[in-house]
Amino acid sequence: MLASLLSAANFLWAGRETVALGRAAFLNSIYMLIGNGGQMIASLGVFLYLARVLSPADFGAMGVAAAIVDLLTVFARFGQVEALLQRGADDQAIRSTAFWGLTAIGLCCLVVIAALAKPLAAFTTTGVVAPVMIVLAAVPLIGNLGQVNEAIMRYEMRYRGIAIRNVVATVGGAGAAAVLATHGFGVYALAAQKLVFTIIYTLTVLIARPWLPSLRYLSSEARRLFSTGLDVTISNTLQMANGRIVDLAIGFFLGVVALGQTRVAWRLYDFSLQLVIAPLSSVSYSLFARVRDKHDEMKRSYLQYVEIITLIAAPIFVGVSLLARDVMVLLAGQKWESSAGVLAVLSLSILASCASLIFSPVMVATGQTRVVRRQAIIQTAANVALTLIAAQISVLAVVVMYLLRMYVFALINVRLMNISLGVTWREFVYRLRPILAGIVGLSAAGILTRTLLPETHEIIRIFGVAAAGAAGYAFIIFAGDKLRLWPDYVQEFTTAARSILRRKAPVQAEAC
């Protein structure tokens, strides 16, 4: 989002004919930056508090229930916001058709969640899962009641309401969870957080953009809307399923306590990804879409983007891996020390994440959307098989298998992108060699510093290892530049970063 904000500002200051649209993009980027930032801060704060107050069993029980609820919530949306933005967000009859369809899907999901409550509780031998799922059964329906209003707001580029909705809903849900957790309601505090968030989330968008449906329902438009939303639904649901499959497997084979320990580590990892990766990835679709008809520039942008995002993200997550125990104990408390191994392994997946991050934008820009769908299906199938095998052993085995799968598919995705853009493996690795060498320097400096500070406080170790690792990383890169191992690398990186940050921000609502 920061990159999108900077590029929108550059577009605005350029003084072009479309200055009004540039100004709108700039302001909307500010709104979304404030909304996402406020949401992240509130979510992280209450999460860390709940981690100290609640038990691993509470997080595990919620993880089992959320696995089903979250999947059906994503499915229930059925890509209707995107479908309306494509065509019909300004037509009352089409809006009403989408609303009644979403309401019907939401009701069906409510029934399915309620019906699955007892069987899932028996499946995981955790009785509290059933009442938690009953509490959360209406979440997909409540969320769907505001989907058309959100589409209208995006179409009209009224992002101020969306930003306010994100912050208010997150703070409201966090407050409810904190109060209930403090008064000993355990897992129900986590359930209340999700339910209250959804209610406020929907109410605020209804207030920000009032709209009421008519009784019209156009069958022809319904077929178009749901056909358009199908691809979005498949992609989003499979993406969500990859994480939830892991939750269900761990919950069933290893118990809810093990799942709770896994979920807390995974949540910290997700927060880190949102903090570091999201600002870097916000311009990826528009970046590659702008140069899709210029092969040489597309190839150059691809290599530059991989280089920049890896250069920034890789050292941060390798450092988190080295400091996993100290980070877990400092942020969540001593009882989560056993989660450190999960966080350490997950953080090592960053190179695969950086490579896979741009797979969809590159494939979409080159007109190969079917490849994206195929890879998502294959990856989900592999995830199911490997997770079920690893769950027979231990939580760490599940996470290691996840790590290996990430790298295997990252290599496949890189190969597909390279073939599409005419990039050789030698060119790809050649651009990353300073970063890979720098990571070696970071790891050596960090491990050495950690051995010299064995009995110190977590904060001292974190700052000491982080400072030493950063120094080692920078030293290797600058030394290699001076020794002509990768000549002019620092200057080229600076130029490439400025080039990407100055790309014009997309002015269409769905891209902001």
UniProtKB/TrEMBL annotation:
Keyword Cell membrane: yes
GO cellular component, one term: plasma membrane
Transmembrane intervals: 30-51, 57-76, 97-117, 123-146, 167-189, 195-212, 245-265, 271-290, 302-323, 343-364, 376-400, 435-453, 459-479
Membrane in keyword set: yes
InterPro entries named in the record: Poly_Biosynth_Transport
A Pfam family matched in the record: Polysacc_synt_3
Membrane topology per record: Multi-pass membrane protein
Keywords for this protein: Cell membrane, Membrane, Transmembrane, Transmembrane helix
Localization: Cell membrane
UniProt family annotation: Belongs to the polysaccharide synthase family.
Record's protein name: Oligosaccharide flippase family protein
